[in-house]
User: Fold these one by one.
Assistant:
Number 1:
Amino acid sequence: MNRVYIKTYGCQMNERDSEAVAAMLRARGYRIVEDEHACDIMLLNTCSVRDAAEQKAIGKAGYVSARKKKQPDFVLGILGCMAQNRGAALLDALPDVDLIVGTQKFHQVPDYLDNLRAAREAGVPIGSSIVDIAAEAGSQNTIRDHLETDEKQVSAFVSIQQGCNMDCHFCIVPKTRGDERSRPMADIVAECRSLAAKGVREITLLGQIVTSYGRRDYAHTGGVTPFVQLIEQVHAIKGIERIRFTSPHPRGFKSDLVEAYGRLPKLCEYVHLPMQSGSNRVLKAMNRPYSRERYREIVDALRAVRPDMYFSTDIIVGYPGETEEDFEQTRELFEACNYDMAYIFKYSIRSGTVAADLADQVPDEEKERRNQVLLDILRRNSERRTAGLIGTVEEVLVEGPDKTGAHFTGRTRGNRVCVFDADPRLVGQLVPLQIERATVSTLYGSLVLSGVEN
Ligand code: 5AD
C-alpha cells in the first residue's frame, strides 16, 4: 500500500520538485518505484506552460483512474503547476483524483497521503478529495531534500528561488509559481556543501528567473548582484567542480555576470539565454524589456570573455500579430547567435494571460512552418559545432553507466553528452576525452590516459 510512482512533466524545476517529494516520502516510509504498473499511489507532477502539456497530464490522469475499478484503494494525485492553475476545477473532468496539491504545498504531500491512507483504513468512503493550492509564506525554502540513491550522484539541481514577477504577456508561470521569492543564500550554500560532501561535483542552480536572485534581500556589493555573490560562494566550495544555472533573463546579464565568466573557472561555458523573439516590435508586445540589439550585445560580450561559449535559447513562434517580417528578424538573429541547442515553441494560448485576448492569432500551419525554419538552422549550427569537436580533447565529468550498462556517460562543459569506456572508479571525476565520432545528440570518444602522452 505504500508504493509511489511519480511522473514528471515539464521543466527541470519540476524534476527537482519531484525529487524532493520523493525524498520526503521515502523518509516517511513510502517506497518510490520505477514501474508505474506496480504502484499503489501515482503522483503526476504537471506543467502548464503550454496547453499540450496540460492535455497530456489530463489524458494520463483520465486513463489511470480506470485502475480504481480493479484496485479500489489506488490513490491518484495531481501536483504542481496544473494543479495550481486549475485547482478544484480539475475534479469536474477528473472526479476520481484524490489529491490536488499546488506549487507552494509540495512539502505537505506526505501528510496528505498519510491522511488519505488513514481514512481508507478507517473505512471513510472513497471519493472525498484533498485540494490544497493555497499560498504559503516561506514555501521557497521547502524544496531542499535530496533523494539518496544507491548510485553515486555526480550532478545535482539546487532550487534557489520560486516564482517570477516579470509579467511576460504570454506566460502562465507567475500564476502557477507565484511571486518571486528567494531562499536564503546561507541555506543554498549549506545545501551545496552537503551535496559536495556526498560526492556531487556539478551544481545547477534553479529558478524561474535566477538572475534576479535575492534582489530584495541582499545588497549589491561593489557592483556585484546577489546572484553573482551566490555563484562566488558556491564556487568557493571544495569538491564542486562545475556550476550551471537555469533559467536566467537577458536583463540579468550586466557586466558583473559577464565578468564572472572571466574569473570563475567552475562556471561552465554554456548559457541558456531565452530570446523569445528577434523582433523589437514583438518583444515589446510580449513585454520583454530588451531589444534585439541588446540581446546580440550580451551574446557577443559573453563570447568575448569565453570564445568557446555554448548558447541555448527559448523561442516562441507565432506570437499573436507576428508578421512574416517579424519572423524574418527572429530568423536572422537566431542564425547569427549560432545556438548549440534551442527550444522552439509554437505560441499556445494560456487563459488569464494578456496575450490570450489578443486578436491576430497566427494560424497553426504558419506556426509549424516557422518552427521548421528555425529547427533546420539549429540542426545545421549544431552539426557544424559537433564536427569541430571531433578530434579535440574535451573535459568530461563522468556520471555513471549508460543505458545499456556497457559504457559510461558524462558531459562536456558545453553540456554535450558523451559515451565512452571507463573504469567505474572514475565516476565523479573530470577526465580528458578524445572525441572520435558523433551522432546528432551524442559524442563518442576514448579517455586520454595521463602519462601515456609526452
Ligand atoms: N506559448 C508557447 N511557449 C511558451 N513559453 C512560455 N509560455 C508560452 C506560451 N504561452 C515558452 C517560453 C519560455 C519557455 C519555458 O516556454 O519560450 O521561455
Number 2:
Amino acid sequence: MIKGKLIVFSAPSGSGKTTIVRHLLGIEKLNLEFSISATSREARGEEVDGKDYYFLSLKEFKNKIKSEEFLEWEEVYRDNFYGTLKSELERIWAQGKHVIFDIDVVGGIDIKRIYPERTLSVFIKPPSIEELKIRLKKRSTESEDKINMRIAKASIELATAPQFDFIIENDNLEVALKEAEELAHNFLKKRL
Ligand code: 5GP
C-alpha cells in the first residue's frame, strides 16, 4: 500500500482545533480524510458512532489495547480512553488520501515520533486560560466538574507546545484558518 502523509492538530479542548480540522477537510485539493479515533467515553450531543468516534465500551477498548490494535492510545481523563486504531491509517491510505488528526497533545507527539518524516504536527494555542473557560462554558455540553477537569489539563498541555513543528495562536479564527491552510498545503506538496 502507498502510504500518505499525516497532519496532526493538537491543543487543549476548546482551543478551536476541531473547527480548524473541519475547515481543512472541506478543502478538496488537500485530499484529507479524518482519522476517527476510538474512545471509551459516552457520545455527547449529536455525535455519531463511526463518524465522530468509534464509541467502545471500556472492556472493548482494553481488549484492543491487549491485541495491539492501536497506533497510540491514552487515558486522557480517568476511565476515558482515546486512541488511534492502526486500521484507520490503512483505511485512509487505501483511498489514496492523507490523514488528518484531531487528538490530544500526548497522542500528537506520539504520532510525530512514530512517523517523523511523514507527519506535520501543529499545536493550536488558545488566547488564554480565561478565554478557554469561556469557550468551554459556552459549549455547555458538560458539567462544571468536567469543564474544570479540562481547564486543569489545559495548563499542562500548553507547556508541550514547543514540541510541535508549528504553533498557531488562535486569537482570530479567520487568521488561524488561513495559517493552517498554508501549513497543510506546503507540507503536502513537499516530496518525502
Ligand atoms: P473530547 O472528549 O473533547 O472529544 O476529547 C478529549 C481529548 O481527547 C481531546 O483533546 C481530543 O483531541 C483527544 N483525543 C481524541 N482522539 C484521540 C486519540 O485518538 N488519541 C489521543 N491520544 N487523544 C485523542
